[in-house]
Amino acid sequence: MTVAQSKNYPLDWNIISYMAFVHSVALLAFLPAFFSWKAVGVMFFLYWVTACLGITIGFHRMGAHRSFQAPKWLEYFFILCGSLACQGGPLDWIGLHRIHHKHSDTKNDPHDSNEGFWWSHFGWMMYHLPANDDIPRYTQDISNDPFYLFCQKYFVLIQVALGLLLFAIGGWPFVIWGIFVRLVVVFHVTWLVNSATHKFGYVSHQSDDNSKNCWWVALLSFGEGWHNNHHAYQYSARHGLQWWEIDLTWMIIRFLQIIGLVTDVKLAPSAKQ
């Protein structure tokens, strides 16, 4: 599907309105009344919880690729953290990601990078694409899990509950920074993995798509920017395969493996110790 063809699909006004709302409210952070250094600190802490523990470890390396096994309580903790990203429920996120890998940079890839940077960054989300209807076929292994279903159905309410907690602790500055600014930052860092790492960087492995290793996306996303490595070895819990390819997410997974909390850790051949 090309960008021109996408116009044959209906716009998803729910997503468009939601994204406009979150980005607009985040702009309130520029007003002095909503600024405090404590609020900024809360934002960075929750950014780590959401992007690293939630999206990168929970939804991506564990959920989508089953790169390691964890006890249910820990697995559910990571899935809960991922749900705080408000990028849809875990079934939607994991299903679309699996579809992306199945059809990477072809017409059936929902964020095909051949259609341009902005399309792969966020334009694809503004339409109801056929890939959305294929999600159940790609999530059969988790579609009956009660906790995944709970997060799928109530991820917005989970965010509201966090917002109420932040308001009780630090008022509106904590809400603006801890919810809205954080969501915008996590949104765009996640989207950069779809867009920038299919355009900027170097190729070290054959992957039959446009994926590249991009150091600055890796820095922002806790190691997800080593994207060519990931597309070459999708199952690997470690994405930074060279010593200079710093992968903070892998460091956490490796620590959890050392203390016995995660098992069956899958690695690319060059990363095995």
TrEMBL record:
Q: What is its main location?
A: membrane
Domain called Fatty acid desaturase: residue spans: 41-250
Record InterPro entries:
Acyl-CoA_DS, FA_desaturase_dom
Q: Which Gene Ontology terms cover its molecular function?
A: oxidoreductase activity, acting on paired donors, with oxidation of a pair of donors resulting in the reduction of molecular oxygen to two molecules of water
Compartments where located: Membrane
Pfam families registered for this protein in UniProt: FA_desaturase
- Keywords, in A-Z order: Fatty acid biosynthesis, Fatty acid metabolism, Iron, Lipid biosynthesis, Lipid metabolism, Membrane, Oxidoreductase, Transmembrane, Transmembrane helix
The entry's family comment says: Belongs to the fatty acid desaturase type 2 family.
Q: What is this protein called?
A: Acyl-CoA desaturase
Task: Tell me which species this is from.
Answer: Aphanothece hegewaldii CCALA 016
